[in-house]
Specification:
single chain; 263 residues; mainly beta; Triple-stranded beta-helix; Jelly Rolls; five-stranded antiparallel β-sheet
């Protein structure tokens, strides 16, 4: 067996070898900013920020923007993908109707356009910052109603700080949901956070018995609420409900919770 080091004594701490070392141990990610939002019928603003992105040679570069940039999309009635690059000349921000991420870039937003207008902007950044960005468990294929023998639908709780070691600030949450009806019901899904002072609603969505009998979406919310004692165990709670006994399907996926430990 032969063991060697990427940065050898004869190389010194040259930037290239440090970029290679970083690229081999870390994914591309956004540190701060680069948030996309609609600013016109086909215009998207990208805020200032800092990101660390690998190129085709697996070398990591810091990409920094000091001001908001604007992209004017040309792909109409399609899904547009906005990319942030580290090594493609002057075009640091590009968009495409193809989802394939270029080998020197990272996906930061997914934008849908209909009839010459932007109908949705979904944050697609991979975020790693001074806080924690935690991918929590996915809940897929949950069926409620008759599957629970006519009992009240149980809430789904995701707890943090179960060891009671730190105060925690819940900064933001993002999750996807899918609801489907197979009977004439009205159903809902409500999410809450609790940092020790009672449940606070994050979002609520409902679905009535009407075509297409299903609904899906992405919820992104800022929380910015903190626990006041290390003994507090904060949680996120999802509460499904239906108007009558019946069968319906719920899926909650890609639950990202951004939080930080505080003094």
């Amino acid at each position: 067996m032969t063991i060697y080091r990427e940065v050898k004594n004869t190389q010194g701490l040259k930037s290239k070898y440090m970029r290679i070392a970083l690229g081999g141990t870390n994914p591309s990610f956004v540190l701060t900013g680069f948030t996309a939002s609609k600013s016109g019928s086909m215009d998207v603003d990208i805020t200032a920020g800092t990101a660390y992105i690998k190129d085709s040679g697996n070398e990591t570069y810091e990409v920094t923007s000091s001001a908001t940039e604007t992209l004017t999309l040309t792909g109409n009635d399609v899904t547009n993908y906005i990319f942030l690059h580290c090594n493609n000349g002057a075009n640091w921000l590009t968009f495409s109707t193809t989802a394939t991420v270029p080998d020197d870039a990272i996906l930061i937003a997914t934008v849908v356009t209909v009839a010459g207008d932007i109908t949705s902007v979904v944050d697609s950044r991979t975020i790693i910052n001074e806080s924690r960005n935690k991918l929590l468990v996915d809940f897929k294929g949950y069926s409620f109603g008759t599957y629970w023998d006519n009992l009240a639908n149980p809430p789904i709780r995701l707890y943090l700080n179960e060891l009671q070691t730190d105060k925690i600030k819940l900064k933001s949450i993002k999750y996807n949901y899918y609801m489907e009806l197979t009977e004439a019901l009205t159903v809902s899904l409500t999410s809450y956070y609790n940092v020790g002072a009672g449940d606070v609603e994050i979002d609520s969505v409902s679905l009535a018995w009407a075509p297409p009998y299903s609904k899906s979406g992405t919820v992104t919310k800022t929380i910015n609420a903190s626990t006041s004692a290390t003994s507090t165990i904060p949680y996120i709670k999802f509460v499904p409900a239906d108007s009558a006994t019946g069968l319906w399907i719920l899926k909650i996926t890609q639950i990202y919770l951004e939080y930080e430990l505080i003094d």
